[in-house]
Amino acid sequence: MMRGMNTLAHGHRLRTGRCSETGRGYLLTTVVQGRTPLFADFDHARLAVQAMRDCDGAGLSATLAFVLMPDHLHWLVQLRRGSLSALMGRFKSCSAAAVNRARGTPGVVVWQAGFHDHAIRDGQDIRAMARYAIGNPVRAGLVGSVGEYAHWDAVWVGGAR
User: Fold this and answer.
1) Domain ranges in the chain?
2) Cα 114 to the chain's mean position, in Å?
3) By CB neighbour count within 10 A (0-12 exposed, 13-18 middle, 19+ buried), where does 32 fall?
4) Which of 26, 98, 131, 145 has a CA between 20 and 30 Å from the CA of residue 154?
5) Fold of the domain built from segment(s) 27-154
């Protein structure tokens, strides 16, 4: 019981002080339930990447960069419409449904509750943030160079703050 209470308290801390400002860039991080390396499977990873692209296509976000690690996601994004919580809710819901369909595991929880966000402040080097996020597979020892890793992308979009 205490563990559940700690989880709830942690989730609450993640939301404390969160504000969503359209037009602002954010570095979002979310984790697979139980840190299971679900996205080590190429097909499952591509389903999650498609869910990010669908959020962009719906006008909610503009992806600046991302890296989908086996057990978590770093997503550098410009919020276009709605809130960060709505964006992450849609991404998690759509990606989980697609992965569960592919696995034949309907209703299984894919993502941990909550997410971490870092608002990009004026003057912060967004390219450095993108490079840091994308460098995760190398730092984790999964590959020798970023070019060897399949689940990342970076697109410079001018105007992101």
Assistant:
1) 27-154
2) 11
3) buried
4) 98
5) Alpha-Beta Plaits (3.30.70)
Q: What is the pLDDT along the chain (161 residues), one digit of tens a residue?
A: 333 444 444 444 444 455 889 999 999 999 999 999 999 999 999 999 999 999 999 999 999 999 999 999 999 999 999 999 999 999 999 999 999 999 999 999 999 999 999 999 988 888 999 999 999 999 999 999 999 999 999 986 454 43
Per-residue tokens: 146: 């970023």
To which H or E segment does residue 12 belong? helix 2-15
Contacts (Cβ under 8 Å, ≥6 apart) of 107: 100
Please report, as a single letter, which amino acid is at residue 51.
Answer: A
